[in-house]
Each structure stands twice: as structure tokens, then as C-alpha cells.
Design a protein that fits this description.
With about 300 residues, the chain is α/β, with parallel strands linked by helices. Helices cover about 30% and strands about 15% of the residues. It has helices at about 40-45, 50-55, 60-65, 115, 140-170, 210-220, 235-240, 270-285, and strands at about 15-20, 30, 75-80, 170-180, 195-200, 225-230, 250-255, 260, 265-270.
Length: about 300
């Protein structure tokens, strides 16, 4: 049976927050698209899952881990809405037509492998593979989410990128994420234990190799086990905005959740303060980098 909805904007906060420095002192931006904790009541009414199960898709506490960015001269963009509600690290209309009672328009990208896995911009499943919704949705409700939440987030991100590049002549975006410590059923590495950090630069196409190398060396120097592009090479943000030939570089960082949280209870763990301190050290390294490496090739 189709699910009737109410306005999901009614009890939601602003779609995003920008924590801006007093003065931006480097061509550096940080973003956390998946740490949002807003779950509109109308969305919860549509779901067959309890709130804790929905939170399994969150990059919980990543906003706290990267909180030092503004004090070190770089803006930090945060999505306030939850990833289970809407994923801004996808194309806007990367959707599964089978989720809707009415036929979606031609703009929908139903052929994406992420859609096939149930993880489009409006996900069909959470990270554990469980179905989110009790029934089919109306496409007009998907459009309403995209217009009210997705579009403003990406307008804010584009504004930061354009302003930074305009001021400094170049720009580096660090797209910050976290990952389950073991690959899940929806992942390319099910059941495999993961390294501490994964750096995603689309195989070297979204970011200058010197930047990836700098981040990799810094993290390894702190004792972290680091891998590049496996199992995450970068999402929509990395692929869409990364344009090194025009001096815009994007690097995705995935942090193993076992380092800092209880993955089942979705609570902060004893490792969170030390990890946050180390990420602050990484931000300081990036803020003091030789920015000539971001010049177009």
C-alpha cells in the first residue's frame, strides 16, 4: 500500500550549517555530509525501523572529529539532515523507481550501482541491509526533500568552493566520512575488517597526488593504518567537484568507527578525544601546506 506522508520540513532544522572561521587563511574547506542527526517525525512515521537502526547509516560524530577546522582558518560545512532521510553524496535524482507508487520522470538515474544496492539519494535500506520504508513513497515527496535539503546543501558547498577559489586561486575540499569497522552486506568487502583510514581520490583524478601523499604520510606518522581508494574511492562529491585542471581538488577521508565509537550503540567511545586531537594535527598540516601544489597542471 502507498504510504501517505505529511510535510517533512515542518519539524526539521536548517538543512546545513557552516562553521566559518573568523578569517579564512587557507584555500581549504571541510565538509561532513553524513553526520546529520535530524530525523523529521514524518519520515520516522514512514519507516519500519526504530531510530537506532536508522542511525546505523550515520557518520556519527564526524562533525566533532573535524571541529578544529574553523579555529585553524578553514570553514566546516555540515549537513544537519540524516543520511537515511537523504544522502547528499549522491546525484540528486539517483533513485530507485521501485520505491515510488508513481513513475519517476526521465531525470532519474536508476542505472547507478548505488541504486542497485539500495543506496541512492533516498536510500531503500540502511547500512545493515534492512529495508527502511513500510510501503511505497510518492515521487513528489522525494522532490520536496531534494529541493528543501539537497539543493541548499550543494548550493552552500558550491558557494564555498567558488569563494575560496576566487580568493586564493585554488581550493582543496576534504570530504569527511566514517566507515563501519567491518564491511557490511551492502559493501564490496563484506565481512572484511578494515584499516584505520581510507583516502579516496578517484584513483588520482580528483586531487593532486601530492595532497593525498601529504595526508597519507601525516596519518601514518600518527600510527594509523592507511589505504587508498579501497573500498571507497570517492562518492558523488569527490567525482563531481574534483577538477584539478581548474585548481579544485577534492579528497575523501573515511575513518574507521571502531577507533572512536561503539558501533552498535552509536555512542562515543574512549578513543574519540585522541582521534579528534590527531585530526586537528592533520588539519594544521593541511593549513600550512605549500599551496602551489594545487596549481593547475
Amino acid at each position: 500500500m502507498p504510504v501517505q506522508t505529511t510535510n517533512e520540513e515542518d519539524d526539521a532544522s536548517a538543512p546545513y550549517e557552516i562553521r566559518a572561521p573568523v578569517e579564512q587563511t587557507a584555500p581549504l574547506i571541510f565538509a561532513s555530509p553524513h553526520s546529520g542527526r535530524d530525523y523529521p517525525s514524518a519520515f520516522l512515521a514512514l519507516s519500519r525501523l526504530d531510530p537506532l537502526s536508522l542511525r546505523l547509516s550515520e557518520d556519527a560524530f564526524v562533525d566533532e572529529i573535524f571541529a578544529a577546522a574553523p579555529a585553524l582558518g578553514a570553514p566546516l560545512l555540515l549537513a544537519n539532515f540524516s543520511r537515511a532521510f537523504l544522502d547528499p553524496n549522491r546525484e540528486a535524482y539517483e533513485l530507485d523507481p521501485e520505491m515510488f507508487e508513481d513513475a519517476p520522470p526521465d531525470c532519474v538515474n536508476a542505472a547507478s550501482p548505488r541504486v542497485a544496492g539500495g543506496l541512492g539519494s533516498i536510500a531503500r535500506v540502511v547500512a545493515s541491509g534492512e529495508e527502511i520504508y513500510k510501503g511505497k513513497l510518492r515521487f513528489e515527496d522525494a522532490q520536496a526533500r531534494i529541493k528543501a535539503f539537497y539543493d541548499p546543501y550543494h548550493q552552500a558547498l558550491r558557494g564555498l568552493l567558488d569563494a575560496t577559489r576566487g580568493r586564493f586561486g585554488r581550493c582543496l575540499l576534504i570530504d569527511a566520512h566514517s566507515m563501519p569497522s567491518v564491511g557490511g552486506p551492502m559493501d564490496s568487502d563484506p565481512g572484511r575488517r578494515r584499516v584505520d583510514m581510507v583516502l579516496g581520490d578517484c584513483g588520482g583524478f580528483s586531487c593532486a597526488p601530492a595532497v593525498t601523499e601529504t595526508v597519507e604520510r601525516s596519518l601514518q606518522g600518527m600510527g594509523f593504518e592507511v589505504r587508498r581508494n579501497v573500498p571507497y574511492s570517492g562518492g558523488f562529491t569527490t567525482r563531481h567537484y574534483g577538477d584539478p585542471k581548474n585548481c579544485v581538488h577534492v579528497l575523501q577521508i573515511e575513518i574507521n568507527r571502531a577507533l572512536y565509537m561503539d558501533e552498535k550503540k552509536m555512542t562515543r567511545g574512549p578513543g574519540l578525544p585522541e582521534l579528534t586531537e590527531n585530526i586537528g594535527r592533520l588539519i594544521k598540516v593541511l593549513a600550512g601546506m605549500d599551496w602551489d601544489i594545487l596549481k593547475s597542471s
